[in-house]
Write a structure and sequence with these properties.
With 476 residues, the protein is α/β, with parallel strands linked by helices. The protein is built from twelve helices and 20 strands. It is globular and about 60 Å long.
Length: 476
Amino acid sequence: MKTRLPLLAVVILGLAASPATAEDRPNLIWIMADDMGYGEVGCYGQRVIATPNLDRMAREGLRFTHFYAGATVCAPSRSVLMTGKHHGHTRVRGNAGPNNPTAQALRDGDTTVADVLHQAGYRTALVGKWGLGDVGPAATGLPRRHGFDEFFGYLNQVHAHNHFPDFLWRNEEKVALRNKVTPVGGNGGGYATEAVEYADDLFADAAVKFVAENKARPFFLYWSMVVPHANNERTRALKNGAEVPDLGPYADKDWPGPDKGHAAMITRLDGYVGRLLDALREQGLAEKTLVIFTSDNGPHNESNHDLARFKPSGPFRGIKRSLTDGGIRVPMIAWRPGTIAPGGVSNHVAYFGDWMATAAELAGAKAPADGDSISFAPTLLGKPSAQKEHEFLYWEFHEGGFKQAALYQGRWKGVRVGGPNAPVALYDQQSDPAETDDVAERRPEIAARIGRFLSTARSPSPDWEPKWKTPGKAAH
């Protein structure tokens, strides 16, 4: 039986007996879609939207079937990824919005995976959406204060709603774009009336350029796309938040505009991934580079598109903002020709926080001792007997009343809503992946075990104190 380690304990795998040398340390690329569901990729069951490059990536690499985002919404999920601490320990635990920007910013002293890799001699870059710091009061969280040598993209997520913005950030300087924008609210929100330059096209250019410019040294690229996130302001104004330069193969479909646009965004994203993998091959870097593809949380419904057409959550229940697996289980494909065997499928249970220990191990570096991170490098290397596992994974959610969830032993999902002593709804993912049958009364010992964990899972945070709300009949 595999050894399981409590997530609340200090969990950092020992590094290899011989630290990795500069010659054998892989380049590391983490590609992350925004609000893309588990079921929106062909190799995960999608039948309407074309994703040939991601499907090929899976055929050539390893596809994870039980991988989780750090949270069910944007900012905390990214905080978990960057810090290697689970949702109850990481700095940013929710989307704070413009009224409390410091609550959504990393602080001095927060160590990120970019810090660890930078100190190990990696050239580090962030391309795309950040969401963990901004100019002004939240400047403690700016990317270059947290391990990134280079940054090009959006600082805050409202600005990132607009796929055709009138400016982006390069490091701490604004870069003007040719788009003409109708502003809505603050923080850069709005929509283009003259759409010329698509941000994610520019990010793809920047990602490929970074790889070419750094091929002679180890690098870490965090490519945080914005597609297929909706432009929420455009949805409210024009009833269609699926902003994309063209509708591609869906232009002639007998579908509403938002459906065409949503599908086109994902196929365009797929093209970006294919372009990067081709560039790695052309540069002779494919066998030297680990590429991870995933999404920051479950699928959204904010473009005004039809979820029934695409079935974006796959076999799971819920979407973004849900603590059922539809909101937090995400696609994850790992690719490194010559190291990762092609065509593999793994049911190893892992989450965003594990990237810290994994990246550190592969880079011959040391991860922080206070993390909640287990390296999944053994799984990548085809050594499942050496793979350690979490006893618990943990999530919380602060919008509309505090909620908690935990996965126990990779099988039992517990959700608590309504108060610190409220009963735990319990689902057996082994027989009920959609989490529709509450078995708490049939397995009271498991429900009680998860309930005790939930009561101690989080550390206090003055920015993110639980505000419980008595539940109605809504789904968890």
